[in-house]
Amino acid sequence: MRILCVVPARGGSKGVPRKNLRLVAGRPLIAWTVEQALAARPSMDVVVSTDDDEIAAAAEAAGALVPFRRPPELAQDDTPTEPVVRHAIEAARAADAAPDAVMLLQATSPVRLPGTASRAIAQLEASGVDSLVGVVPQAPFIWTDGPEPSAAYDVTARPRRQDLTPQTLRYRETGSLYLTRTWVYDELDNRIGGRTGLFVMDEVEGVDVDTELDLAVAEQQLLALHQTTTPGDPA
């Protein structure tokens, strides 16, 4: 299976300006995701889609391909991710490198344990699903607000945390990782479609950098992780 990894990295981030270039645990934020993707499968093309020359240079220094600049109409504050991925797919096709599936990794989720990305590839190939969604488990004690707030669990039979099972847990989409057969983008214009599976990640992998606090948390997690692993470990 030929897999294209796409890492979107726009230059105009607002919450944390220039966050894709911020140094986190000694490396630009974008570099963490690029290096994890490259370790997952050496034959996988890892493409960073950016409109920014500095981000492009940092991505290339980390080992990514940056074969194009993202056009301005795909680099707006309100641009969805799917058109960005489809733009990368078409560029791959034009280069006679049409992918069977696309791994979408968000640079703003830099914490991934060694083996995570390669495990996702193995799960897609073994399960036969059409799309995988990266999730982290959480307790089901979640409520929906409204005129009559409702719980996502039976309040008359509240489970103890130690009694929770994979079936009674809830799973939060992290935004960190999606792995999707290309036809889903072609026919449904979505990263999720067809037969969908959950790719369960470790709770520590759920960080998403939107604020300075998120950036500090990600740095501490990466520093702790890399005290016990080496950069060459499979992603």
What does this structure look like?
With 235 residues, this protein is α/β, with parallel strands linked by helices. The chain has one domain: Spore Coat Polysaccharide Biosynthesis Protein SpsA, Chain A (Alpha-Beta Complex). It is built from 6 helices and 10 strands; from the N terminus they run βββαβααβαββββαβα. The strands form 3 sheets. Strands 4-1-5-9-6-10 form a 6-stranded mixed beta sheet, with helices on both faces. It is globular, with a radius of gyration of 18 Å. The model has no long low-confidence stretch (mean pLDDT 94).
List the helices and strands and how they pair.
Blueprint: E1 3-8, E2 23-24, E3 27-28, H1 29-40, E4 45-49, H2 53-62, H3 81-94, E5 101-105, H4 116-127, E6 131-138, E7 143-144, E8 150-151, E9 170-181, H5 182-188, E10 196-200, H6 212-225
Helix pairs in contact: 1-2, 1-4
CATH topology, by name, is Spore Coat Polysaccharide Biosynthesis Protein SpsA, Chain A
Q: What is the helix content?
A: 25-40%
CATH architecture: Alpha-Beta Complex
Oligomer: single chain
- Unreliably modeled segments: none
The total count of strands amounts to 10
Can you list the strand order of the major beta sheet?
4-1-5-9-6-10
Characterize the biggest β-sheet.
6 strands, mixed
- Structural Rg: 18 Å
CATH superfamily: Spore Coat Polysaccharide Biosynthesis Protein SpsA, Chain A
CATH C-level: Alpha Beta
